[in-house]
Design brief:
Layout lengths: L1 H29 L3 H13 L8 E5 L5 E4 L5 E2 L4 H13 L4 E9 L2 E5 L8 H13 L7 E4 L12 H4 L7 H15 L7 H13 L16 E3 L4 H9 L3 E9 H11 L2 H14 L2 H8 L3 H4 L13 H8 L2 H6 L8 E2 L2 E2 L3 H11 L2 H4 L4 H13 L4 E2 L1 H15 L46 E8 L2 E10 L2 E10 L7 H19 L24 E6 L7
Parallel strand pairs: 5-6, 6-7
Antiparallel strand pairs: 1-2, 1-14, 3-11, 4-5, 4-8, 8-15, 9-10, 12-13, 13-14
Helix pairs in contact: 2-19, 3-9, 3-10, 3-18, 13-17
C-alpha cells in the first residue's frame, strides 16, 4: 500500500510536469522570437509594395534596433511633427504661452507679435473688445511687426489637414490685410458678424457688440517705422497682452489632429529663434545625414517662385477648371488647397499632363524638380522616440533652462499629454479601439506614404517602433492596406513582449471641442488715465 502511494505520487508529479511543459510550449507558441518577428515583418511588408521600399523596426530588450531596411530613408510625412513639437517643448517649456502685445500712446498703437501659431480672428475679436472697454474705437495709426501672423481660418477643422505646405513668409505679408479686415468692424460681412456673435456668446469677457475703425492708410509695418513704433512702446498709456493656451496643449492638438499649419508655424518660429538642426545635432550625432527636414508638418514644399510661375498661367488655370479671380492677393499668390491637390494629381497623371499647353510644360517640370519632402530612416525615428521617452521621464537637455518638471512622473508616460493615445483620440482612435491606452503614436500619410511610429506600453517595458510604407500613388487601397499591415505588426510586437500594459488616461478636452482655442488670458496695464480718443 505504501509503495502504491509512492507510485501514485510519482505519477501525479510526472503528470504535473507534462502539464507544465504543455503550458510552456503554448506560451512559446503565443510569442515570437526575434527571427520569427523579422520573417513576419518582411512577409507582411512585401504585401504593401516592393519590399525594398518598405521599412519597419523596433528596439529589442538588448536596446538594439532590429527590423527590415532600417537604414534606408523614407518620407516621414506627418511623423515629422514629433520632431517639431519635441523641439518646441524642450526649448520653450510646457507652460509657455505665446504673447501678443498692443501698446497704445495717444491715438496710435503698436502691435508686437510672438509668432504665435494660433493667433487669428478670435484673438483680434478679444483685442477689439478690450479696446472698446477702454473707450477706444479708432486709431490714427497702427504699427505691427513681422512677428504678427494672422491666418483667418487657422483653427477651423478643415485647415488642420490642408494638403499644401504653409509658407510663413507669404502669410506674414498677407497678415496686414487680415488685420485691416478684422479691425474695421463697419465693413464686416454678414458671415463675419455671425461668426463673432457665436464666439462672443461663449465668452463673457468679450463684448457682445464691438465697434472699431482702422483706415487702410493708417496700418503700417514697423519695417520702415521702427523708431515711431518704439516710441509708442516706451511711452505707452495702455498695454494689452493677449496670451495663448499653453504650449503643452497646443502640442497635444498638433499631434492628435495632425494639424499642418500650426506645425509649420512652430517650425518657422524655431528657425527664427534658434537653430532647429543645430539643436538636434547635439543629441543625434549625424542628424543632418540621417534627416532631411524642410517643413514642420511633413508636407512637401516647393520653390515659391516656381510655384507662382506655374499657377499664374491662365491656360493652366482654365485646364484645371479654376478661376483666376483668386490668382493674386496683392503681390502674393493665394495658393489654396484645390490648386496644390490638383498639382499633386497632375504630377502622376498623364491625362492631366496632356492638358498642359507647351509653354506650361517647362514650368511644370521645374516645379516638380523643386518638390522636397522630409525624410529619415527607421533608426532615426527611433532615436527621436527615445528623446521623447527621456523627456517624458523628466530628463532634459542639459543646456535648456527656464522651467522645471513637476514631481509626479510615472514611468515616463507623461508623453501621453503631448502625443495621441491609441483607441482614444485622433488618427489612432478608430483603428485601435480595442487597444485603448496601450500605446502612443503618430501617423503619417502622403499620397504615396503611410507611416506609424510610436511607443508600445508592454509587460516588458516601453518598446519604440516605426513602420514606414511606400507605394505607387495611383494604386487604390494602398493606404488602407498599409494600415491593416501596421495593425498586424503592432499586434505581433505586443505578443512578443508579453502583452500590453495599459495606462490610465483622462481624455483631453481638445478631443471633444477644438473651438475652445481662443485667448487664455488678457492682461491690461494702465499707466495713467486718459479719456476716449
Amino acid at each position: 500500500m505504501f509503495h502504491h502511494h509512492i507510485r501514485l505520487a510519482v505519477l501525479i508529479k510526472i503528470a504535473s510536469l507534462f502539464a507544465c511543459a504543455s503550458f510552456i510550449s503554448i506560451a512559446k507558441a503565443d510569442s515570437f522570437s526575434e527571427s520569427e518577428i523579422f520573417s513576419k515583418l518582411k512577409k507582411k511588408l512585401s504585401t504593401v509594395g516592393n519590399i525594398d521600399e518598405q521599412s519597419a523596426c523596433y528596439v529589442n530588450q538588448n536596446a538594439e534596433v532590429v527590423g527590415v531596411n532600417i537604414n534606408q530613408k523614407r518620407d516621414l510625412a506627418s511623423v515629422s511633427k514629433l520632431l517639431t513639437t519635441f523641439f518646441a517643448l524642450a526649448n520653450w517649456g510646457e507652460q509657455y504661452q505665446f504673447k501678443t502685445t498692443l501698446y497704445i500712446f495717444g491715438n496710435k498703437g503698436y502691435l508686437q507679435g510672438d509668432l504665435d501659431p494660433i493667433f487669428g480672428t478670435r484673438r483680434v475679436y478679444d483685442l477689439i473688445s478690450q479696446l472698446n472697454k477702454l473707450g477706444i474705437t479708432k486709431l490714427s495709426q497702427l504699427f505691427y511687426d513681422k512677428k504678427v501672423i494672422i491666418k483667418d481660418s487657422i483653427m477651423s477643422p478643415s485647415s488642420a489637414t490642408q494638403v499644401y505646405g504653409l509658407d510663413p513668409e507669404e502669410l506674414i505679408k498677407s497678415s496686414g490685410k487680415q488685420l485691416m479686415a478684422l479691425m474695421n468692424t463697419a465693413k464686416w460681412s454678414e458671415s463675419k458678424k455671425s461668426e463673432f456673435q457665436k464666439w462672443s456668446a461663449a465668452y463673457p469677457r468679450i463684448s457682445k457688440k464691438i465697434n472699431f475703425r482702422l483706415e487702410e492708410s493708417n496700418l503700417t509695418s514697423t519695417t520702415s517705422q521702427r523708431a515711431a513704433a518704439q516710441k509708442i512702446k516706451l511711452n505707452y498709456q495702455y498695454k494689452i497682452e493677449i496670451f495663448s493656451e499653453s504650449l503643452s496643449e497646443i502640442v497635444k492638438l498638433v499631434n492628435v489632429f495632425s494639424h499642418n499649419p500650426i506645425s509649420d508655424l512652430l517650425y518657422y518660429r524655431a528657425q527664427n529663434n534658434s537653430s532647429f538642426k543645430k539643436f538636434y545635432e547635439k543629441y543625434i550625432p549625424g542628424f543632418a545625414d540621417t534627416f532631411e527636414f524642410y517643413s514642420g508638418s511633413g508636407l512637401p514644399v516647393y520653390d515659391q517662385k516656381e510655384l507662382k510661375a506655374f499657377f499664374r498661367s491662365q491656360e493652366n488655370l482654365r485646364s484645371l477648371e479654376l478661376t483666376s479671380s483668386d490668382q493674386r492677393e496683392g503681390d502674393t499668390l493665394a495658393v489654396d488647397e484645390k490648386r496644390l491637390s490638383d498639382f499633386e494629381d497632375l504630377e502622376f497623371s498623364v491625362a492631366h499632363n496632356e492638358l498642359l499647353v507647351e509653354s506650361d510644360q517647362q514650368q511644370f517640370e521645374n516645379l516638380k524638380k523643386s518638390r522636397k519632402t522630409n525624410r529619415s530612416n527607421c533608426v532615426g525615428v527611433l532615436k527621436i522616440l527615445e528623446l521623447w521617452s527621456k523627456f517624458s521621464a523628466g530628463e532634459r537637455p542639459s543646456e535648456i533652462l527656464g522651467f522645471q518638471y513637476p514631481s509626479e512622473i510615472i514611468k515616463g508616460q507623461r508623453a501621453k499629454n503631448w502625443i495621441a493615445v491609441s483607441g482614444r483620440e485622433g488618427t489612432i482612435k478608430g483603428r485601435y479601439l480595442d487597444l485603448k491606452n496601450q500605446f502612443l503614436a503618430k501617423t503619417g500619410t502622403l499620397r504615396d506614404t503611410s507611416n506609424l511610429s510610436g511607443s508600445l506600453m508592454t509587460e516588458k517595458g516601453q518598446v519604440h517602433f516605426s513602420i514606414m510604407n511606400h507605394f505607387v500613388a495611383q494604386q487604390e487601397g494602398k493606404v488602407d492596406q498599409s494600415r491593416k499591415i501596421q495593425r498586424s505588426i503592432v499586434d505581433d510586437l505586443f505578443l512578443s513582449f508579453d502583452g500590453a500594459a495599459a495606462f490610465d488616461y483622462r481624455l483631453s478636452r481638445i478631443n471633444s471641442e477644438v473651438s475652445w482655442f481662443g485667448t487664455k488670458k488678457v492682461l491690461i496695464e494702465t499707466r495713467r488715465k486718459t479719456g476716449p480718443f
